[in-house]
Amino acid sequence: MYELYNELQQKTRDLETSIRILRQNGTAYAQAERDYKILLRQECLKLREDGMAIGMIDKTCYGIPAVAEARYARDVAEAVYKANQEAINSIKLQLRLIESQIQREWGNPSNG
Prior knowledge:
Order of helices and strands: HHH
Structural class: mainly alpha
Shape: rod-shaped
């Protein structure tokens, strides 16, 4: 029983840590999104000023190395953020399973 209680405490600490990391990852994701959109806009405006046809600007901008790199950084930040969310969901499920096991063992007086 004490092992389950210790495991419950550890999972609770893991959850708290993951939530703090999620905030950091969420901030990094938002910053990467902002940086990407600003750079994309700047490059689109440059192409427009150079007289490029509007229909070609998007296709061309995505191939500019700096824009592609910013988009990649944004996508990686998003993947890390979403993986962190999934890790939190997994820890929550593990916590519920441990709590259920504790309830079963506490509810059965023959276990002790």
